[in-house]
Structures are given as C-alpha cells and as structure tokens.
Amino acid sequence: MRTAIAILNWNGEILLERYLPSVVLYSEGTDIYVIDNASTDTSVQFVRTNYPRIKIIQNSTNGGFAGGYNEGLKQIDADIFCLLNSDVEVTEGWLDPVLDLFERMPDVAIIQPKILDLMRKDHFEYAGAGGGFIDQLGYPFCRGRIFQSLEKDIGQYDDTCEIFWATGACMFIKSKVYWQLEGFDLDYFAHQEEVDLCWRAKNEGEKVYYVGNSKVYHLGGSTLSNMNPKKTYLNFRNSLFSITKNLPRRKALAIIFIRLLLDGVAALRFIAQFKYKHCFAILRAHLSFYRQFHKMYHRREKANFIIKYYLTKSIVWSHFVNQIDKFNVLIKD
To answer: Where does the Glycosyltransferase 2-like domain lie (predicted)?
Structure first.
C-alpha cells in the first residue's frame, strides 16, 4: 500500500525546523508532503531549501485543519494518508506496526499510534493519548487522558485494540474511506473534526484502531492551547454538531437538550474561576450552533447509525463527582 505523510502547516517554520528531521529520518521510502495553509512566514522556503525531496502543496487560503486537509489531499495519490501535525516527533519504526495492521486486517480503516507528551515523555499527551472514546452525551476522552488528567505511561496501553476515534495529531486513514466520507466537515474549521470523521466512519461500518507499539511525541497547543477561549468555543460548538449529525433523531434531540444544560453549568464554573472569556465562548458556541442546526440536522440523511457508540454513560459524572482520573479505573466503575 502506498503511504503518504501529509503535514499541515500554517506559519510553522520553527516547528518544521524542529520536528521534520525525525519524520525524514524514520520514514524512509514514504512520500512526505507539506500542505501549506497560505502561510505568511518563510516556512515554505525553509522546506524547499532544506528538504528538496519533500513535496509542497500550497493552499490559496487558510481553511483551518478541516479545509486545509480536504484541499491539500486532493493532490496526493496514495492508498494510506498519514495526517501528521507539524509539532510531532516520530520514533524509529513508528510506521511498521501501523502498516502491518492495515495489511493483516483489511476491515480497519483508521489507525492512531500511542501519543506521548513531548515535554514529559513518560506521560500521555492530551490529543489522543492511548486512543479516543466518547460517553453517552458525546463528551470525548481517551485512554490515558480524562479531561485535563494525564496518566503516566507505564505500558498499560501497549496493546492493539479497537477505539472510537483517532486523533488528528497523527491519524492514518485509507484514502478511499476518506473520500467516501467526503473528508472533514468544513464547518468545524478546527477541533473535534476527527471525532466526527471517525463517528461517521463507524456509522458506515468501518473500524478504528489504536496501535500501542507505535509511538510518537506531540508538543500540543502549538495552534491553540487547551486554555484558549477560541478552543473552548470550537470544542463546545463542534461537539454539538457531531451529536446532531451522528445520532438517531430522538436520541440526538434528547442529548442536545442535556448538553445545553451541562454547558450552562460549565459556563457558571468558568465564572466562578473568573474565566469570563471562556464563559462568553460557550455562549458564542451555542449561538453558532443554533444558526447552523438546520444544516447539521439534514446531514443526518446521509448516515446510518450505530446503536452502541459510547463506552460509559457520563465521563463528567465519573471524573468530577466520583473523582476518577484513570481509564482503567473508569471501565471497572
């Protein structure tokens, strides 16, 4: 299977300078592309000068994560796309276990490796960790990461297993499946578009897997940190988008109602913490969701719906009430 590594870049010369060397060193024989999202710095020239074998695709506008990949991948001919963040350091042999699983299990469409924290290499990283899941209300979490609680890597997730969603920080996906799903939803712009993509893939009967004996290190927060109000806005809004699109009508409407109430609680919590910009971000997220509800609702017409999509009923209750901060404790609860 022909594999292409596609790195999305926007004004990321410093990141490319730091992390491209590992990708080039440990990805021999694999085509590497940098998809540039209309950067205004000298990152494109940096790649051309220092890595002439890397192919450059230049988008005319910055379409965010979703639009950037949808546009750039049109120009890449491969069986497997590896969507790789520019702030990821890969390791020796990282490709082999992933590509081997694609060969051994033809029904697997999407794979992610183990994602560790570049700054604390013995801990899992926020974006993806040991593989993603959601609860009944659509809140995403990971093996190794529940909300802001990150586990130390002691080999507890060195397995290979089916998961619900794979992180966009390092996602391998069959190109045929990517285009059958029409790529990422452009209305997300950034954040949780990979959850939606994997959910849609699951609804179509595809499998998403985690491969623990392939590992990469992710810096994280290089575009928007976890504490940025814009990220709060995108996460709250886009999660509501995914619920609307990917669940049967009655279930979707019931869960949306509950989520709106819980979002209100989250807004009050932000006020109590004097994080007024985050409270306002939730309000803006709801207003944007209301404006686009009709469009998102009718996208359900393309979908089949899996019945068992969640691993636990409420990750919010488990974490904030029962004080559970480790995945293995959660599934025993």
So the answer is: 7-113
Tokens 């068992």 appear where? 308
Residue owning tokens 């009967």 = 205
Instruction: For residue range 195-235, list pLDDT tens digits in order.
Output: 999 999 999 999 999 999 999 999 986 555 567 899 999 99
Residue 91 and residue 115 in contact, taking contact as beta carbons nearer than 8 Å: no
* Tokens 């694999």, located at residue: 30
Sign, CA dihedral 333-195-266-220, equals positive
Burial-class residue 255 by CB neighbours within 10 Å (0-12, 13-18, 19+): middle
Which stretches of 128-192 are DSSP H helices? 175-180
Could you give all domains of the chain from N- to C-terminal order, each with its CATH number?
A: 3-218 (3.90.550.10), 229-330 (no CATH)
Instruction: Give percent of the chain with pLDDT exceeding 90.
Output: 93
The pLDDT tens digits of the residues spanning 230-289 come to 999 999 999 999 999 999 999 999 999 999 999 999 999 999 999 999 999 999 999 999
CB neighbours of 100 closer than 8 A, spacing ≥ 6? none
CB-count burial class (<10 Å; 0-12, 13-18, 19+) for 287: exposed
Q: How many CB atoms lie within 10 A of CB 268?
A: 12
Do strands 160-163 and 149-150 pair parallel, antiparallel, or not at all (unpaired)? unpaired
Cβ contact 73:6 at 8 Å: yes
Q: What integer pLDDT is reported at residue 221 of this predicted model?
A: 67
* Number of Cβ within a 10 Å radius of residue 181: 20
pLDDT of 302 > 80? The answer is: no
